[in-house]
């Protein structure tokens, strides 16, 4: 997900190409695995980010982005209100084409079947993850 200030011209788009962001300052969250994954996304597209700041806390990332000092990339949509700690508007947008692939795997020992509860969770995860795919 790309995180942008509500005032950013790209904020009105439904989805954003990483190439369009590469010309702007990246406010990178410096935690594992986020920083490695962010750099991998750029290298897979043969792009080089312009680092605006590398910070260890998501709240600081959101504050800097909210002030319009750059954008950030997150592996998932944060479960937070769409404003920074200062009350400045933030938007999240899917990357298109999608950056990287994340896998969710359910495993169990050979000869055993998942319980009804486990099967319900697996079925729900399949349904939820398919519904979250960008169109």
TrEMBL record:
InterPro entries assigned: LysR_subst-bd (IPR005119)
One Pfam family, short name: LysR_substrate
Keyword Cytoplasm applies: no
GO cellular component: protein-DNA complex
A GO term, aspect molecular function: DNA binding
SUPFAM superfamilies for the chain: Periplasmic binding protein-like II (SSF53850)
Keywords: DNA-binding, Transcription, Transcription regulation
Domain annotation LysR substrate-binding: ranges: 2-129
Domain of life according to the entry: Bacteria
UniProt similarity note: Belongs to the LysR transcriptional regulatory family.
Protein name per its UniProtKB record: LysR substrate-binding domain-containing protein
Origin species: Glutamicibacter soli
């Amino acid at each position: 997900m790309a995180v942008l200030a509500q005032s950013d011209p790209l904020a009105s788009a439904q989805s954003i190409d990483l190439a369009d962001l590469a010309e702007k300052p990246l406010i990178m969250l410096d935690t594992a695995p986020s920083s490695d994954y962010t750099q991998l996304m750029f290298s897979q597209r043969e792009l080089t980010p312009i680092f605006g700041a590398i910070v260890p806390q998501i709240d600081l990332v959101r504050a800097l982005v909210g002030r319009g000092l750059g954008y950030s990339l997150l592996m998932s949509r944060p479960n937070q209100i769409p404003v920074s700690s200062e009350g400045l508007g933030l938007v999240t947008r899917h990357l298109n084409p999608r950056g990287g692939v994340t896998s969710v795997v359910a495993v169990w020992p050979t000869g055993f079947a998942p319980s009804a509860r486990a099967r319900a969770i697996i079925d729900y995860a399949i349904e939820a993850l398919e519904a979250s795919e960008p169109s």
